[in-house]
Amino acid sequence: QVQVVESGGGLVQPGGSLRLSCAVSGTFFSINAMGWYRQAPGKQRELVAEISNGGRTNYADSVKGRFTVSSDNAKNTDYLQMSSLKPEDTAVYYCNVRAVTSDYPRREYDYWGQGTQVTVSS
User: Fold this and answer.
1) According to the model, what pLDDT value does residue 21 have?
2) Rounded to an integer, what distance in angstroms lies between the CA atom of residue 44 and that of residue 121?
3) Mean pLDDT for the chain?
4) Are 60 and 88 in contact (CB under 8 A)?
5) Helix (H) and strand (E) counts for the chain?
6) How many Å apart are CA 3 and CA 114, to the nearest integer?
7) pLDDT in tens, 60-86
8) CA distance 63 to 80
9) Of 18, 38, 77, 110, which has fewest CB within 10 angstroms of its CB?
C-alpha cells in the first residue's frame, strides 16, 4: 500500500506565504512524478504544479512566478512553496503521486492524499 499525506495548510493573509508538504510512505519501486492539484468549491479541480523525478516542472499559468514545487527523493517528500498568495488561491490542495510498484510487472499508479485546506483572507 502507498499512503500520501499532505500538510502545511492553513489561514494566511493576502501576500503571505505557506509551504505545503506531501509525504509518501509504503511499498513502491520509485516515484516518477509528484503533483499538486487544487479545488475550490464549485470549481473544477486543476493542476497547480508538478515535478518529475528528473526535475522537470510544470506550473499553471495562474501560479507561475509565485509557487515553486520541489522534491526530496531521500525523504519521499515534495513541497509546494507558495508566496504572494491571493484570495483566489483559496482551495483544498491535493498531492498526487505517480509511483511504480515494487513487484513485477512494474506498473505506474496514481495515489492521492486527503487534501489540506489553504485559505487566503484578511
Assistant:
1) 97
2) 21
3) 95
4) no
5) 0, 11
6) 10
7) 999 999 999 999 888 889 999 999 999
8) 11
9) 110
Q: How confident is the model at residue 94 (pLDDT cuts 50, 70, 90)?
A: very high
In angstroms, the CA 26 to CA 2 distance is 4
Cell 493573509 belongs to which residue?
13
pLDDT value for 53: 83
Report how far residue 61's alpha carbon sits from residue 49's, in angstroms, rounded to the nearest whole number.
10
What are the residue ranges of helices labelled H in 1-122? none
**Is there a contact between 2 and 111 (Cβ–Cβ < 8 Å)?**
yes
- pLDDT tens sequence across 6-51: 999 999 999 999 999 999 999 999 999 999 999 999 999 999 999 9
* C-alpha separations of 70 from 43, 78, 116 in Å: 26, 6, 18
Q: What average pLDDT score do residues 100-119 get?
A: 94
